[in-house]
Each structure stands twice: as C-alpha cells, then as structure tokens.
Fold:
Amino acid sequence: MTEEPSTPVGFLEMMRPYKGLREEVFADLLVAVRAVSEDIRSAEPLDRNLVSALWGICHFTRAWALAPDSMLRRNQLITAEDVDRLDTWIDGLSYAIAMLLDGADDDIAFEPFDLDE
Structure:
C-alpha cells in the first residue's frame, strides 16, 4: 500500500521513511504548539506527555537528520538545502518551547516565525 501525499503525517513520521520535507507538516506542528502555549507557559504541573513529545521532536530530528553522522545524512537521503531548512525549523521550535517554559508571551516565543494572528 502506498501512502498518498494527502495522508496526514506527524513531524517525526515525515523523517522515516524520508521522502522530503513538507512545509504543511511543520506549519501544523507550530499551530499545535501555539494551541497549547498557555499550558506550556503556566500549567502546574506541566503535562509530562506534552513536554516529552516536544523534546522528542527536537531530539530525534537532530539525531536522525541534522547530526553529521545521522542516518539521513550518512545515507545521503537528505539534501544540504533540506538540512539547512530543517535546522532553522528546529532551532526556532526549540527557542519557542524554551521561551514558553520561561513564561514568555506568544509574540516573543514565536518571533522566529511569520505566524498569522
């Protein structure tokens, strides 16, 4: 069975098997993080599953695609342009999460992205 391009996938699912970056998948991730931004910013206690999911996205993206010896780079499955774009995405996502955990407002946390209000 072949996966249709319109089949919804999660961010990490986009990496395995790697068929290229999908801008809409990253955009959906940002929408989801923004939807829970108040919880990340102020929930006591924080939802462990939420933090684990966000940490996992950042960690496994670096391990699978961004590290020089990662499976996608080692096997020449990802282009240098995609590595650069993915690095920018994950740096921005990590920044947003860190800012939210520190209590920053969305305008500060999501500053690296051009998001519609």
